[in-house]
Design a protein that fits this description.
By secondary structure, this protein is an all-alpha fold. It is built from 4 helices and no strands.
Length: 111
């Protein structure tokens, strides 16, 4: 790239792609989309918690019946964890913080 040339703007999208994307963005502003998205986000959060806390990615067993039993017991354990948090008054977390973000929140001791 020479000193006189500059980066050009991003190329325009084809008309069909632009119209499809515009329609999708308009649909996101509707109340029905918001309700559906909220439900999906809740399900994804539950699965994420199961993966982080109860190691749902791998089954300990080989075979459909044993794996199903593990899933049922894991779901029961998740419910017990949630009930324990509810009884203890633990507030629901909005977002999960990384270990680095938690470390940055710790006050630095003054000498």
């Amino acid at each position: 790239m020479s000193a006189t040339s500059s980066w050009s703007a991003a190329p325009a999208r084809p008309r069909e792609e632009h119209e499809t994307l515009d329609a999708a963005r308009q649909r996101e502003d509707q109340l029905a989309f918001s309700k559906d998205y909220r439900q999906c986000a809740g399900i994804e959060g539950t699965i994420s918690a199961g993966v982080r806390v109860l190691h749902l990615r791998r089954s300990r067993y080989i075979g459909l019946a044993e794996t199903h039993l593990q899933h049922v017991l894991t779901a029961a354990a998740m419910n017990l964890i949630r009930q324990g948090d509810w009884f203890a008054g633990t507030p629901l977390a909005r977002t999960r913080q990384s270990a680095f973000a938690k470390l940055m929140m710790v006050p630095i001791p003054v000498r």
